[in-house]
Amino acid sequence: MIKVVARHQSGHWSEVDTPSFRENTMKLRKPDHQGASVPTLISRTEVADQSTNRTFHKVDKQTDLDDDWRWFHPHFPGTNRFVDCSLEWNVEYWKLLDHGIRVLTDFRVTTADNHVELLPSNMPWVILESKLQKNWLLLFSVAHNNLDNTPRRAAAWVEEGHTFKGFQKRQAAHHKGIHRLHQADMNKNIRRQQERLQVQNGMLMSTGLKYAWNIDKLPKKGTTKWGAIIDYSCSNMETRGTTKIGGNTGFSDHNWIETTWHA
């Protein structure tokens, strides 16, 4: 059996090149104080600015993590704009085999006040090979799903779900037996039954993925400062994962989550 410990945090796109983001990057990569939890995978959302990559480089140069971590934070296809999602992995545990980006919807949406036109939502992905167990492959992906604060954004979320399902089914068929891990700011509060069902039916149904949150024992603290739990870790690994909510280093309005999966 292999244990996979993954962390996820949604950030704040305008504050990625700050001391607090560098502090957060180092903190999320380090084991907990007892050493019982050793993260080897990290996903991030709301990290669109190019300074994300500069921050990662600065962290590597200023700490003893310089040879341990790699990341995938690509440009949106056909543009010079970075996507707002990134993936990180510890090279002592994982070898990169492939990577790419799946555009989840062609909808062009704006913020609620029509002030900013957003890139179509996208999903960076990597295929990693475990260095601890032979022939053990993992498809690791991340996405930042739309809010439903405008009719067009609500429709975009539905389209994201359709595309995500198709991608997961094709990957499962092409790579027989591959393990899959998807983490996201889904912008659906799992505390609310209707929104929880939207995730289950609109995003996960028929993919073989399950989310790690135990709805019977949800923590009082949320992944957002107003108490909502909208960040998810989902996988097809054999045992349901266990998720805990960490803290916040001040650059974001989201707390990070840590999920442990076994396969």
Question: What this model shows, in words?
Answer:
With 263 residues, this protein is α+β, with helices and mostly antiparallel strands. It has one domain: Deoxyribonuclease I, Chain A, CATH 3.60.10.10. 22% of the residues lie in helices and 29% in strands. It has four helices and twelve strands; from the N terminus they run βαβαβββββαβαββββ. It has helices at 19-29, 51-62, 151-174, 193-204; strands at residues 3-10, 41-45, 69-72, 85-90, 94-103, 122-130, 137-144, 179-185, 210-211, 231-235, 239-245, 257-262. Strands 3-4-2-1-12-11 form a six-stranded mixed beta sheet, with no helix packed on it. Strands 5-6-7-8-10-9 form a six-stranded mixed beta sheet, covered by helices on one side. A hairpin with a 6-residue loop joins β6 and β7 (137-144). α1 crosses α2. The protein is globular. The N and C termini lie close together (5 Å). The model has no long low-confidence stretch (mean pLDDT 89).
